[in-house]
């Protein structure tokens, strides 16, 4: 447990092709609801949920994006300030899995995270309730190892393994906040020491 005072809000962003189930996964997690009806997300939307992460109370601000809008300029302000990015695909669609490479690259370009090589990505395979699977857990895991992401799979429809990826995203997001807070204090301390040193010398 850390010494943090006051609530922390973590921005978690869901991206991936249209129809993979981003909105469904978020709705299952936050509202415990699911519908078979498909209503494409227009623009962006977020839902909040307060959770306890290793003794810290944090508010997750989960941003759901429209899969159809990948090549529009929405990304820039939307991706900025994210603490964790969830790359979502449909396990019955190889194309949606292959597309994640571009989604990830675009996130890194437009979101400009402070430390791109260490930014936390969670890859999420949805629709495991379906039998016509095109992407095996093994190939998803292999790609995750290559890019340094963590892999989860589940089903928004059947409420399978929905909590875990969000719990992990929150943990990773919180680590980001703690790390950058620490670096901020550390650098300020270093600057202070340098100015004391200069005063002493001159
Ligand atoms: N069988 C099955 N269907 C699902 C699951 N999750 C979502 N769906 C269905 O897949 C369709 C698309 O789901 P959405 O959650 O709207 O997909 P999305 O990724 O938000 O799509 P965009 O908003 O267009 O980017 C809907 O008809 C859902 O009911 C799942 O776990 N299993
Ligand atoms: Mg949607």
Short description:
With 202 residues, the protein is of the alpha/beta class.
SSE topology:
Layout lengths: L7 E8 L6 H10 L12 E10 L2 E10 L9 H5 L4 E7 L3 H5 L1 H12 L9 E6 L10 H11 L2 E4 L9 H39 L1
Parallel strand pairs: 1-3, 1-4, 4-5, 5-6
Antiparallel strand pairs: 2-3
Magnesium ion (MG) binds next to helix 1.
General description of the model:
- The protein is an alpha/beta fold and 202 residues long.
- Helix content is 41%, strand content 22%.
- It is built from six helices and six strands.
- It has a six-stranded mixed beta sheet, with helices on both faces.
- Strand 2 (44-53) and strand 3 (56-65) form a beta hairpin.
- The model has no long low-confidence stretch (mean pLDDT 89).
- It comes from Seriola dumerili (Greater amberjack).
- This is Ras-related protein Rab-7b.
Give a quick account of the main beta sheet: strands, pairing sense, barrel closure: 6 strands, mixed
Strand content: 15-25%
Number of helices: 6
CATH topology: Rossmann fold
Give the beta-strand count: 6
| Secondary-structure content class | alpha/beta
Report mean pLDDT, rounded to a whole number. 89
Shape: elongated
Spatial extent as radius of gyration: 19 Å
C-alpha end-to-end distance: 43 Å
As laid out across the biggest beta sheet, the strand order is: 2-3-1-4-5-6
Helical content class: 40-55%
The CATH homologous superfamily is termed P-loop containing nucleotide triphosphate hydrolases
Would you identify the CATH architecture?
3-Layer(aba) Sandwich
The CATH class label is Alpha Beta
pLDDT < 50 runs, ≥5 residues: none
Order of helices and strands: EHEEHEHHEHEH
Q: Can you list the ligands bound to this structure? A: guanosine-5'-triphosphate, magnesium ion
